Amino acid sequence: MDPKAALRYALEATRERVLRCLEDVSEEEARRVIHGLSPLVWQAGHVTHADGVLLRRAGRTSPVPDPYGSLFGTGTGGQAGYPPLDEVRGTFEAVHGALLALLDAAALDQPVDAPHYRNVGEMLAFSAYHRGYHIGKMTTLRALLGKRRLFG
Prior knowledge:
- By secondary structure, the chain is an all-alpha fold.
- Helix content is about 60%, strand content about 0%.
- It has a single domain (about 5-145), classed as dinb family like domain (Four Helix Bundle (Hemerythrin (Met), subunit A)).
- Helix 1 runs antiparallel to helix 5, helix 1 runs parallel beside helix 6 and helix 3 packs parallel to helix 5 (about 85-105).
């Protein structure tokens, strides 16, 4: 399989799973902190913020608003004044589209300014991995909220 096609598949699959984890969640449920875990809205906002950081590291413009860093960056979470879930979902969709545009336009070996990956290809692989990690958190939160099981 072509490496770009594999990365596109990973990004699209994780996009679909993030959105499925949010599709039947109310605003109140999305903000609920259960057993000290960062809420669903934070999980979605965090992967959105992180993907925006990746875009900037590749020299691209990010559609993620600046306040997302203080709300959704590493080390944040818990109860906070998060934006509405629909806004976070829309921003996630915008940043996802920007990552796909980067995938289409850039060479996978194009260097990026980052400590944990060297180039666009490694960075996009990290995005899919990172999203998958937080999808696991989201499915745990869904179970604790009594929501139906989505995968497996």
